[in-house]
Each structure stands twice: as structure tokens, then as C-alpha cells.
Amino acid sequence: MIPSDNSDEAMTIPVALTIAGSDSSGGAGIQADLKTFAAFGVYGASVITALTAQNTTGVSAVHQVPADFVAAQLDAVFADLDVKAVKIGMVGQPATIEAIAEGLARWSPTNIVLDPVMVATSGDRLLALEAVEALRQQLMPRAALVTPNLLEAAALLDEPVAASEAAIKHQGRQLISMGCQAVLIKGGHGSGAESIDYLFYRDDVVTLASPRLATQNTHGTGCSLSSAIAAGLAGGKDLVTAVRAAKAWIGAAIAAADRLKVGRGFGPIHHFHGFY
What are phi and psi of 265, to 5 degrees? Predict the structure, then answer.
């Protein structure tokens, strides 16, 4: 939370940037990212890569933002704001990926968290098949952290979904070899009483377990977790501390999700569970 400050002096606030698609229902994408940044006391800026006509039951249409306009948004933000961390979510198509990669090369930000969004919670595809290789080649090597779920990790590697801890660790090491500094393979799509995430970092593996919660209100979970990590990095936390804090926060947000009644399908998590 942001501490109260009754003085006339302006408060310095860390800034995080989300580069992602817009979710018209407000549960995922840009909207979820900005809510997450706010929950962590971080100022959120945004670069919108796509507009989705979406609600809790599915995605009915996607409008890709032209790549040159994605670049213009990115340049406008970096030219003025002191961005401490960047979260990248839905990128959609190869031209958008190229524009983002070129923009990152121009501005050289640190603390880039790449969430390789491929499919929505509803099952609708959000990343063109021909864009997967561009994501591997142009964005993964720039990332301080890549945060795939089990399905996304398998898709990035063209392998079957990992069904054991040994297979997950094998895929994590392969993803690291693609040039990113660290990988967090999320276990939410797994089975068992616990949801186990695996953080591959500095030749080590950190295991993060939490109870698996029985709720269908998980829309935007992946977007929000990666944004929570970016918020922690923007605030000066080291990577492992930021991941641990984000994992704890997302667990509480999922646990509180049923307190909200939003939509008829996969409802959102409760981003502001710490406030109401």
C-alpha cells in the first residue's frame, strides 16, 4: 500500500509499464496489470498491443493495433517516464513483436518480465502460430524473467506438456538456454492438492508451493502474477523476493475471488483483496 503523506511535497512513486492487450471485461490484460500495479503502490503506464471484445465466457473478436502505433506508444512512455520495470503480455503477431523488440533496444530498460500469453482462460487463442518463433528469438533473450504456465512452456519448446517434476525441470533448463535470465514455470494447470511453481534462476531451482484453490474465478491470474512480479522489481525487490511476494499475493487474490460476483463464466480474481 502507498503510505499516506499529508505534506505538500510530491511523493516519488516507482513506475512500471505493461505492454499487452486490452480486455474489455476488465479481468485480464492491460486492465488486470494496472489494477495489480495499483495494489502494489506502483504507478502503471501502458502500451496497448490489441483490443479484445471479451467477457468472462470468451473472446468474440480481436483487433490488432498497428505495429507503428505500438512503437509510438512505447516511445512516448519512455521519453517521459522513469520506467523501473516492464511487463510484456499479449503481443499477438510478428510485426508487433518486432516493434516491441526494436523499442526495447532503443530504450534499454531493465527488469523485463515476459508472460508468453498464448491462450485465454476461456481457451481462445491470443498469439498467432507464426508469432511463436518471433517471441522466442526477439523477446525471450531480453527478459529478466519469462513466466509460462505448463501449456505455454511446452508450446515454446514444441514438446508435450510436462507431467512430472523431472520433465518440468528439463523444460525450465531448455527455456533458460534461449537467452532469458530466469524462468518461472507456473503449476496452476497441473494436478494435486498443491499448485507448485518452479523458478529457475542462477543455476538453481526454487520451488514455490501453495494450496490449490477450488474456484472458477481465475480470469487474469497469469497476467496479474507477472505484473505483481514486475511491480516488486519496480519497487526495488530482488527477483526471488519479488516472485515470492507475488506468489503470496496472487494466492490471496484467488482465495478472495468468490467474494466478487462478476459475469457468468470465469470471473476475475480479487485484485484489491487487501483493501475491501
Answer: -115, -125
